Each structure stands twice: as structure tokens, then as C-alpha cells.
Amino acid sequence: MGKSVYEGRYTTENDQDIVIFIIGMRINKRRAIRKWVPVFLAMPGMIKELYQNQESLGFLSMESFFGLRTTAMISYWRSTDDLLAYSKGQKHLTAWKNFNKKIGNSNAVGIYHETYVVPKGSYESIYGNMPLYGLGKATKHIPVTAETISAKKRLEPAQTSITKPASR
């Protein structure tokens, strides 16, 4: 995948529901290499599987981050049904079983995940002189126009439904 920079300002259409799934690990005991390396090495195979089967799995895209002790992967999904179905798939179940077998209750390495279900119209984005990234890689990437020039305008439909009091 190329990293072509899109000059100027871009945003995304927010006309579809999206699921954002954040998963990662934290090395709690750096010297316990035998505990945390297998956890770290389980992820590349799953990432490869996701990209090879994007359409059928409902996986849209992902970004990865690596810190001194903590990793994070932000992934974008078509639906919670797709995400939950993947969690029951062979590659993920195998990794989960291996984690429980090798790590068990050891506090040498920690794992976490968070899931956010975001309704259409309830998110916005802006990218200036960037390659496709984040939601811009997961959804339709479009140039900024007069109608999408500000975050307020990009969120206007969602803000209208949230801020208007219910009629009596």
C-alpha cells in the first residue's frame, strides 16, 4: 500500500455506522520476555488475515502504535456483528487460547480492548497534507468543501439532533 500524500485538506463522509475497536498489550515486567513476546507475535498473523479477507470479515482498516511498554491497534469495522464474528474465528480463538495457556494469571503482560459503536453522522475528521490514515483509510476520503470546512459543519446533522430539545 502506497503512502501517497494528498495535498490540501480532506475529510470523510460520515454516512455509515462504524465500529472502532482498540486493542493492545502492556509489558508489565520487561525481563519476562518469554511471557510477553508470544503475545506480541500473535498479532501479525491476525492483521494479515484481516487485510487478506477485508470484505468478507467486515474489517475496514487499522492503525498501529508502539510505545516503550504499550502497543495499541485502532481498527475500524463495518459492524459489531462482523467484529464479534471475527473474535470467534479460528485464528483469534487460537491466539486467545494460547494467551490463556501461557500467561494465565501472570502479571508479566497485560492486554486490553475497547469497542465503540459510532452511528453515522456522529463523527468527523480532518486531514491536511496526509496519506490515507485512520477513518480516511477506512471510509470514503473526500476533499473539504464549503459545506465541510469546519468541525461544526461536519458534525452539524449530529449536533442538531443532540442539541435540539424534544418538542412537547
TrEMBL record:
Listed InterPro entries: Monooxy_af470
Top-level taxonomic group: Bacteria
Name by which UniProt lists this protein: Transcriptional regulator
Source organism phylogeny: Bacteria, Bacillati, Bacillota, Bacilli, Bacillales
